[in-house]
Amino acid sequence: MMIEVKNLVKIYETKKGTVTGVDHVSLKVEKGEIYGIVGYSGAGKSSLIRCLNLLEKPTSGEIHIDGVELTSLSKTELRKARLKIGMIFQHFHLVSAKTVSENIAFALKAAGLPKAKIHDRVTELLDMVGLSDKKDVYPAQLSGGQKQRVGIARALANNPSVLLCDEATSALDPSTTKSILSLLKKINSELGITIVLITHEMEVVKTICDRMAVMQDGKIIEEGNVYEVFANPKQQLTRDFVNSILQFELPERLLEERQGKLIKIYFQGEIAEQGVISDVFQTFKVRGNILHGKIEYIQDIPLGIFIMEVTGEQVEIDRAIAYIAARTKNLEVIDDAA
Ligand SMILES: Nc1ncnc2c1ncn2[C@@H]1O[C@H](COP(=O)(O)OP(=O)(O)OP(=O)(O)O)[C@@H](O)[C@H]1O
Description:
Blueprint: E1 3-14, E2 17-29, E3 34-38, H1 45-52, E4 60-65, E5 68-69, H2 75-82, E6 85-89, H3 100-110, H4 115-128, H5 144-156, E7 162-166, H6 174-191, E8 194-199, H7 202-208, E9 211-216, E10 219-225, H8 226-231, H9 236-246, H10 252-256, E11 261-268, H11 276-283, E12 286-298, E13 301-312, H12 314-327, E14 330-336
Parallel strand pairs: 3-8, 3-9, 6-7, 7-8
Antiparallel strand pairs: 1-2, 1-4, 4-5, 9-10, 11-13, 11-14, 12-13
Helix pairs in contact: 3-4, 3-5, 4-5, 5-6, 11-12
The structure holds adenosine-5'-triphosphate (ATP).
Adenosine-5'-triphosphate is lined by residues 12, 14, 19, 21, 39, 41-47.
GO biological process, one term: amino acid transport
Domain ABC transporter: 3-242
GO molecular function: ATP binding; ATP hydrolysis activity
């Protein structure tokens, strides 16, 4: 187990009283996993991830990273343990008076790497994040995506086993977000670094995470393999997050002009690839009109939702619907004009 959090509590003392940031959270992350924690603002995600490297001191609970329990370490021991935990931030936190190379070299100097080795390591890191041509540039001259690449290079400088990402793509546009996520994925698969990320965007979780947790009011309310959570969300909040990706509204006009039965079909896994829809038209005397549809690929497994109008004789429609229902995850007759 790379990360094990046991009964973590973080309470803030404020002038107005105490605020619970993290409320008895326990979680485990396996070596090499990408683990995403999703939640709305104020759910406690930042508090939780900042406790993982003790940027924030937990009120109680245990944090084990690669077999080391962090909360009981002395200052010196903690400084050493932290080298194994890289972190990147929403607003990058680069030093504006230092060049790209100097920003990265700083992390190596702090860890005591001999000067002669620093240059080579910086060159290697710049190459890894695709910024070799920007080494002497200052952060102000970089785009957001480039700044985050510097942040990533700096976080990886001392060969950490864990990378913590605090809303790392939230300040970036969608296409830059994609490129940063694919860089994180590459780092994970090529270097075997375990990644924990927090985000309010399900899209991020969908794109790169293996497992995920949903956080609300300081607690983890649902957890699991990303495909499983997307396909079978249990809590209302999780359903809302999943719907942000999968759902769509059907225009009112379509509902008014329908003729046969309107059905909503959920596909899961391989079923989505097996052509259930085309089989239905070969087997039964019905016509079908797809009004809306979407297939998302999560961990390369399809998860789909379709709305289809089925017309024809009532008996045939019923048989066709029964046929589809038997072969898909979930079928809802949403409207019946007959
Ligand atoms: N330094 C602090 N002092 C007092 N209360 C805090 C502090 N940091 C966070 N909190 C409170 O703890 C709770 C959780 O906040 P946290 O920032 O961890 O949530 P979040 O899910 O990361 O949300 P956001 O994305 O908006 O930061 C909130 O009620 C917040 O007001």
